[in-house]
Design goal:
With about 220 residues, this protein is α/β, with parallel strands linked by helices. It has 2 domains: about 120 residues, Response regulator (Rossmann fold); about 80 residues, Arc Repressor Mutant, subunit A. About 50% of the residues lie in helices and about 15% in strands. It is built from 11 helices and 6 strands. A 6-stranded parallel β-sheet has the order 2-1-3-4-5-6, sandwiched between helices.
């Protein structure tokens, strides 16, 4: 987002009344502006529209092409474009599917509007954000698995854990290295050690673990 310009948002919501209400709320923020709208997932994939926006806010449950499918296809067109998904459902399957599709944010429609604004700003900054109201409900299935992990092998150090938290939030190895005043190679080693000690094998498992820890709404 160059200079002091506002974040340009594509708002995708099939209910016009809801869409207009969200637009009014978003446009009231000094750094946010809805510059394009779509009423379904297919409309959201217009390359001409995607080329002139900084971020997409998209409903998950829409007729025709769902928000999950649209997010996946959108990320194929513009991998760099962050997507924040809105839903009424605290559903583990939706969250996992959206994380796999490349979503940067997941917010409940019934949460305070400040959560949506927080998610938009975090996603625009390259961070991952999950509505804190979802943390306990969605992360519960991973609690038993984590207890088993903690019961075996070495425990990650505080520095390794800090590096892993920053990775989960979307910071690059270079950004973390600058923040912690160490080399990028050191960050790579800390990340690998933490993943091995905790027992995480990939990005989705890391994001699930980060959700359980509350890292994705503490960025």
């Amino acid at each position: 987002m160059p200079g002091n310009s506002r974040l340009r948002i594509l708002l995708v919501e099939d209910h016009e009344t809801v869409r207009q209400g969200l637009k009014l709320l978003i446009d009231r923020e000094s750094d946010l502006e809805v510059v394009a709208e779509a009423s379904d997932g297919a409309q959201a994939l217009d390359p001409g529209v995607l080329a002139r926006v900084d971020i997409v806010v998209m409903d998950v449950s829409m007729p025709g092409m769902s928000g999950i499918v649209a997010t996946r296809r959108l990320k194929e067109i513009r991998p760099d474009l962050p997507v924040v998904n809105l839903t009424r459902h605290a559903d583990q399957t939706f969250l996992e599917e959206l994380l796999q599709a490349g979503a940067s944010g997941y917010v409940l429609k019934q949460s305070p509007h400040a959560e949506l604004f927080r998610a938009i700003r975090a996603a625009a900054a390259g961070k991952q954000y999950v509505d804190p109201a979802l943390t306990h409900h969605l992360a519960a299935p991973f609690a038993t698995q984590e207890r088993k992990r903690r019961g075996r092998g070495p425990i990650a150090t505080d520095r390794e854990t800090e590096v892993l938290r920053l990775v989960a939030q979307g910071y690059s190895n270079k950004e973390i290295a600058a923040r912690l005043e160490v080399s990028t190679k050191t960050i790579e080693v800390h990340k690998a050690n933490a993943m091995r000690k905790i027992g995480l094998s990939g990005r989705i498992e890391l994001l699930q673990y980060a959700l359980r820890q509350g890292w994705l709404h503490d960025s």
